[in-house]
Amino acid sequence: MNNLKQIEVLIYENDIATKVIELGKKITEDYRNKDLVTISILKGSVLFTADIIRNIDLPLEMTFMSVSSYGDSTESSKVVNIKMDVDINIKDKDVLIIEDIVDTGITLSYLKEYFIHEKKVKSFKICSFLDKPSRRLKDIKPDYYGFEIDDYFVVGYGLDMANKYRNLKNVCKILP
Ligand code: IMP
Ligand code: MG
């Protein structure tokens, strides 16, 4: 699709489609009789969000937030900044963060503190499309994840490199 970078498919769209059904079922069972609010982190988790929430058979509320993470490079700036906060009251709600990938864990460990201590949510869990545990700097793991990957920089299905490639249907790794 783009000949500027060498890319190779890592996860195919049909495997993603199977996975979101499986995750949705698990979340549906776990959140029955709870007050589920999904909070999707823009922009990377938008495609995953659209697929996962349609597989959660519960009267959930959904909202979004935007935080700064990577700039146009593949290394984390390591500073988390809330650019856009949630627009609904989430106090005493069962919050499920929907994220594209947990890499160093800096973003999510910051958000966990923020939601628990400042927003006073009832419960806090993470559903991440991808998990890249080899790069972890913070002691945090997603409660639900689609696929665990090795230390590649990946794009597609919402994930970007310098804001491009989000629209790829398959997840691809950028070849060094
Ligand atoms: P963390 O705070 O290091 O866990 O980084 C989280 C954010 O970094 C994610 O929400 C992504 O936006 C971005 N990120 C980390 N690894 C990748 C990758 O392989 N491809 C695209 N974005 C990534
Ligand atoms: Mg990103």
Describe this structure in words.
This protein is α/β, with parallel strands linked by helices and 176 residues long. Helix content is 22%, strand content 34%. It contains 3 helices and 9 strands. The protein has helices spanning 13-30, 46-53, 106-118, and strands at residues 7-11, 36-42, 61-70, 76-84, 94-102, 123-131, 144-148, 154-155, 171-174. The strands form 2 sheets. It has a 6-stranded mixed beta sheet with strand order 4-3-2-5-6-7, with helices on both faces. Strands 1-9-8 form a 3-stranded antiparallel beta sheet. Strand 2 (36-42), helix 2 (46-53) and strand 3 form a beta-alpha-beta unit. Helix 1 packs across helix 2. The longest helix has 18 residues, at 13-30. It is globular and about 45 Å long. The chain starts with 6 loop residues before the first strand and ends with a strand. 34% of the residues are buried. The site of magnesium ion has 4 residues, from strand 3.
